[in-house]
């Protein structure tokens, strides 16, 4: 509720940018045509938003100048042949003059009213979009906790295991360690072959 005006402004800006490139972006064209026909609306905030398109601008000289696409037109008979120029010369007229010709209400308001009237469907759409995101965040957090636990176990050292009680260097097999001439010992170092040298 509090952010509704700001959201409408953002939607209006994006739709106007899409209308500006209406004939260059086929995907946006198909989406906007569907929305205008489905929700009986025209443009973003109102039908005059089509003025920003170079082909529909009243300053243009083509057959679409100062008009709106046929998807804005009111179809009086279902299934009738579509007149693609039904929105001809409508941008320079007043809203009351066009009530029987085109839909003058903007699509932002039309879709907003539909979402309010269909609260359950809106809630379902929002949940279906947000639920995978929430599940992904929870799984990532659990994975991070598991990794942190593993690394903390690797980094910790149990010094009780490392206590050297009744340890004798004589019990250590140093064969094959000829490259190592000394081993650490409290109070100094002892040569590896110290006993052999004494026997000789």
Automatic annotation (TrEMBL):
InterPro entries reported for this sequence: Tetraspanin/Peripherin, Tetraspanin_EC2_sf
Keywords: Cell membrane, Disulfide bond, Endosome, Glycoprotein, Membrane, Transmembrane, Transmembrane helix
GO molecular function: enzyme binding
Compartment(s) where it occurs, according to its Swiss-Prot or TrEMBL record: Cell membrane; Late endosome membrane
Any Gene Ontology biological process: protein maturation
Transmembrane segments: 121-144
A GO cellular component annotation in the UniProt record: plasma membrane
Topology in the lipid bilayer: Multi-pass membrane protein
Chief place where the protein resides: membrane
Family under the similarity heading: Belongs to the tetraspanin (TM4SF) family.
Quaternary organization: Interacts with ADAM10; the interaction influences ADAM10 substrate specificity, endocytosis and turnover.
Role, per record: Part of TspanC8 subgroup, composed of 6 members that interact with the transmembrane metalloprotease ADAM10. This interaction is required for ADAM10 exit from the endoplasmic reticulum and for enzymatic maturation and trafficking to the cell surface as well as substrate specificity. Different TspanC8/ADAM10 complexes have distinct substrates. Promotes ADAM10-mediated cleavage of CDH2. Negatively regulates ligand-induced Notch activity probably by regulating ADAM10 activity.
Protein name (Swiss-Prot/TrEMBL): Tetraspanin-15
The species this protein was found in: Centropus unirufus
Name of the gene encoding the protein in the UniProt record: Tspan15_1
